[in-house]
Amino acid sequence: MSILYRFMKACCMMDRRMNSTWWIDFLMSALLFGVSFGELRYVLPEEMQRGSVIGNVARDLGLELSELNARRARVVAEGTSQLCELDAASGNILISQRIDREELCAQAVVCTLQFQLLLEDPLQAFSLVLDIADINDNSPVFTNREIKLDLLESTVLGRRFPLESAHDPDLGTNSIREYKLSQNDHFALEMSTQINGNAYLELVLKKPLDREVESEHLLEINGIDGGNPVRSGTASIQIRVLDANDNVPVFSQRVYKASVPENSPLGTVITTLNATDLDEGVYGEITYSFSHLSDTMGGVIEINPRGGEVLVAGVIDYEEESSHELHVQAKDGGGQASHCKLIIDVIDVNDNAPVIEIKSASAKVSEDSKPGTMVALINIYDLDTGSSGRVTCSISDSVSFKLVSEVKNYYMLVTNEMLDREIQPEYNITVTATDAGSPSLSSVKVLTIVVSDVNDNPPTFTQKQYNANILENQPVGTFVVKLEAQDLDDGDNAKILYHISRDTNSDEWSFLTINSETGELFTARLFDYEQSVHFQIRVTARDGGQPPLSTTCTVNVFIKDTNDNAPVILYPVQASGFIAEDMVPIEAPRGYLVTKVVAVDADSGHNAWLSYRIIKATRPNLFMADLHTGEIRTLRAFMEEDEPKHTLVVLVTDNGREALSASATVSIMITDGLPVFNELFELTDESQGSDNVTLYLIIALSTVSFLFILLISGVFYFKLCRRGYVYRSTTTSLPVFPTTYCSSTLADFSRCGTLLQDDRYDPFLTTGSWRGDFRFGSSTDTDTLKKRSAAYQKSTLRRVSAERGSLKVRTGPQHPCYVIK
């Protein structure tokens, strides 16, 4: 209202003679019209300075200033320059470019500019109309500043000679109001009004001319407008007095009307003007010309000066000007002229394709956006009129988006369904605008819409369960296995961090460490196969979204055995300062079983396979040790010169890559009077053995081939069991120590506890060891043996019990073990 009031006051001051009541009525009715139809209408004078305030839309629409910023309020133009802008901080509409009414609307009585005030979220559009009022910023201008007339001295009094009017782009009171002719005795100036309201000037002869008295008259004409301050324009009139040209050209019509389609080719004849002159000769020759041609029409329309044809000389555009009013002059050779008016109507053709303007577009749309979310605001218009200006808008086939129109010529591109970036991360939407002309024209614009990611996909491990093998005794920080998880999301939502899940019921989660970025697992401690062969942890992969999503996998870690345990001698007992003696009858033949070295290895598999050999003996070549069983046998019969007591050092070696060993000292006493047991006697036939070597080789080769095939088939079983296959003899196959060599405190405990509380520590007893095990014969033989060795038994076991303590011998579940106390 303030801008209306200020402008009304300025207009009243510019012209006090103007009816102020009319202005007030006009402005109030304009404001009421704008309010009633949901539009804002402001009236402002042209040529206001840039940054001048037109009005406050926030106050006039009842909007909060904060709402303008939040809803991205802005002013958009429809096919015209952006002459105004919105200051969101204050809510004012400001002038952003020079506004010249004459440039924008030419001679139109009403000059209005149409804008749209757009607000988003939700979308609202308010029509913003600016009525540009004229101010007196242009002076009257004569197209021809020097007017030349040739008149016969015989020209009758009262004869009228048309003059070209001055041109003033301003309207109303600011346009030309009067003309004044310089003081003279022969001519007067009369002004009449044409059909369109323009002034029509005529020079009237008031006094007879006399060439002999005055052959030339110099006059001056002034065009004065009604503005405040007054502006004027001047032209000079040079009149030459001639002899005998008493007829002026006469047009067949006072007003000519013609039409021409826009974009007509050059040279097209619009119409032909016709003027006649009754004089003959030079005075009868007529020349046609335009009295005044505007800048916009210059070079567009021309006239044949001899024939009077009006031709197309340039591009005629209906959208620039739909009608043209021209003044044509017909002048004879004597200088006399007449005028007519030519009105040319431009016929609109469908020569303008629809215009697609993206007023607002979001480069990205979240994949969790609800259906109906606005992605872009599109303005469609066509500069043509009628059916050629009616436009329809459509998009390429897409079930994900659709067009919604709630405001004329404006379309919202909204989502039609839930989006999924993982299925389609980007859309290219083709917007097509088509008019209803014949033939129809269309425009196409492609919108690229990127779907932004939300964290809707948890990480996924490439395997549900990982199995890893690691050798025992590896240093801390040894690489174990690399886990890999994938996330279909993007950016931070796909950035995965790994960590080991804590288990409150076990400390196994602390056995390993993990690189949180790569998923690589490393050892955090030393592992001992003899204590643990397997443990399980759970690893969680968590992404970087908000809120984060995670998934878990299981990692099974299997400890592999290494040869880190040396064999342990169980029998004979090795005690410092005392070695138990084994007695053998002097009549023992070759191959007689004297004793057996019993050893175990806490390792498993090949690392626990033991081999025995004698490395030191009192008399070489008298005793031998079985490589696999550890049995000590005689190589020949005893002779009188043989020592009664012999000491053997037996080296027990395991089968590891880097073999470990232990030595056992065996003390043997040759005693006279002991019986020879047939069960302890093994007769060997060397010749037979030599003869059977070939057969043994064939059997061994077949066995190895069979075992190789069996090994491949059994790999899957070993993967599951994680235990080496061990052959164990039955209870009756285990060695039975005679009471001759052990005290009565030797007890048999079947299924006793394990050496290290784990079934894996089974001693490896090679096949065939039962063949030399100690066995008892009849009870009579047993009693006899007891009586003969009673004295030796008491003295020996007394020293053993005092020095060695308790010893446990473990053979595994379901097998007996012996404990010497």
TrEMBL record:
Span of domain Cadherin: 86-142, 143-251, 252-356, 357-461, 462-569, 584-681
Protein name: Cadherin domain-containing protein
Keywords: Calcium, Cell adhesion, Cell membrane, Glycoprotein, Membrane, Repeat, Signal, Transmembrane, Transmembrane helix
InterPro entries, sorted: Cadherin-like_dom (IPR002126), Cadherin-like_sf (IPR015919), Cadherin_C (IPR032455), Cadherin_CS (IPR020894), Cadherin_N (IPR013164), Protocadherin/Cadherin-CA (IPR050174)
Lineage of producing organism: Eukaryota, Metazoa, Chordata, Craniata, Vertebrata
Gene Ontology annotations of biological process type: anatomical structure morphogenesis; homophilic cell adhesion via plasma membrane adhesion molecules
Membrane topology classification: Single-pass type I membrane protein
TM regions (residue ranges): 695-718
GO molecular-function terms, A-Z: calcium ion binding
